[in-house]
Each structure stands twice: as C-alpha cells, then as structure tokens.
Amino acid sequence: MLWNLLALRQIGQRTISTASRRHFKNKVPEKQKLFQEDDEIPLYLKGGVADALLYRATMILTVGGTAYAIYELAVASFPKKQE
C-alpha cells in the first residue's frame, strides 16, 4: 500500500506539458496548396482514396438507413389482422 501511495505522489509531481516529444515535419503548407487548387474535385474528396471510401461508406449507410426507416414505417402503418 505504501508503494501505491508513493507512485501516486510521483504521478502528481510530474509536470504536464503539451509539447510533443517527437518533432514532425509541418505539412500544413502542402495541404493548403492541395485544398486550394481549382481542379474541379470536390473538397470532401481531395484527401485521396481514404476520403473517397469514407464518403461512399457514409452515403451507403445514409441511403440504407433511410430506406430501412421508410420500410419500418410502412410495416408499422399496416398492422396485421388478428384472427
């Protein structure tokens, strides 16, 4: 139990820093050039293949969910007859 308290004390004494330990290359200027080009590609697809896949998956889920909701509403509006 004493070790747990000492460990907790050490955690509390650590300084909190938002500075990154790793230094990455700044890619913002490259991305700005990419997204500001006028090449007739929609903004939501300029990120490449990953953006295209995410867009298609979103559209499939949206259309499928809407169709399923309409189907369930149609089923609920025509209740089964009791015999």
TrEMBL record:
Membrane disposition: Single-pass membrane protein
Keyword flag Oxidoreductase: yes
Coiled-coil segments on the chain, per record: none
UniProt-listed CDD domains: Cyt_c_Oxidase_VIIa (cd00928)
Gene Ontology BP, a term: mitochondrial electron transport, cytochrome c to oxygen
Lineage top rank: taxon: Eukaryota
Pathway as given in its UniProt record: Energy metabolism; oxidative phosphorylation
Pfam families per record: COX7a
Compartments, as annotated in UniProt: Mitochondrion inner membrane
Gene Ontology annotations for the cellular component aspect, listed alphabetically: mitochondrial inner membrane; respiratory chain complex IV
Keywords per UniProt: Acetylation, Membrane, Mitochondrion, Mitochondrion inner membrane, Oxidoreductase, Transit peptide, Transmembrane, Transmembrane helix
Keyword Transferase in record: no
Molecular function terms, GO-annotated: oxidoreductase activity
Transmembrane segments: 53-71
Similarity comment: Belongs to the cytochrome c oxidase VIIa family.
Protein name as annotated: Cytochrome c oxidase subunit 7A2, mitochondrial
The organism of origin for this protein: Homo sapiens
Lineage: Eukaryota, Metazoa, Chordata, Craniata, Vertebrata
